[in-house]
Specification:
With 174 residues, the chain is mostly helical. It is built from four helices and three strands; from the N terminus they run H-H-E-H-E-E-H. It has one domain: Up-down Bundle (Four Helix Bundle (Hemerythrin (Met), subunit A)), CATH 1.20.120. Strand 2 and strand 3 form a beta hairpin. Bound molecules: nickel (II) ion (NI).
Length: 174
């Protein structure tokens, strides 16, 4: 190694993850607060519950990374009543998650994280580096996509997320 400081795997991930968080904030900012209880189908989450889920994923997943295991059924669900409350909670959770992730040096990134069902059966076992990309990032992106469809169905403008939308062409993006 030369004198250049190597960028850790955690810092590489956080560069991507902060962009994802920005997408979440743009989605939250676009949602009409008066439709907080709306859902597109009886089996779907409400707007408020889907937003809360996106925030709690970051908290739960980053905590499980520290504890080396995610145990289903041991996480409290927090209802969110307003956009301001949601944004404050999201900022608090993101800051905590970034601190947790930053504490992992490249060696700790190889540590396994197990997913354990309430009956004790292990259903997944991944090293932290892969776990962050699939379980945290993949899961959040999945629900971001759902929220963007909610926006279209609610007939409110869809913001620029990972590219232009029908409402925000490239020329007007950002
Ligand atoms: Ni989910």
């Amino acid at each position: 190694m030369g004198v250049l400081q190597a960028v850790t795997l955690a810092e590489q991930f956080l560069g991507i993850w902060n962009v994802d968080f920005d997408v979440t904030l743009r989605l939250f900012g676009a949602l009409p607060e008066e439709r907080w209880d709306w859902r597109p189908h009886p089996k779907s989450r409400t707007v408020g519950d889907l937003c809360a889920h996106i925030v709690e994923i970051e908290d739960w997943i980053s905590r499980a990374m520290e504890e080396e295991a995610f145990r289903f059924g041991q996480h409290e669900v927090r209802p969110v009543e307003s956009r301001d409350g949601l944004l404050a909670w999201a900022a608090e959770v993101h800051e905590r998650a970034v601190t947790r992730i930053r504490a992992f040096d490249d060696g700790k990134m190889e540590r396994p994280v197990r997913w354990v069902r309430p009956d004790g059966v292990e259903i997944m076992n991944l090293p932290v580096a892969g776990y962050l990309h699939t379980v945290l990032r993949g899961h959040v992106i999945h629900h971001q996509g759902q929220l963007s469809v909610y926006l279209r169905l609610l007939d409110v403008p869809v913001p620029y997320l990972r590219g232009p939308s029908a409402d925000v062409p490239f020329a007007a993006a950002r």
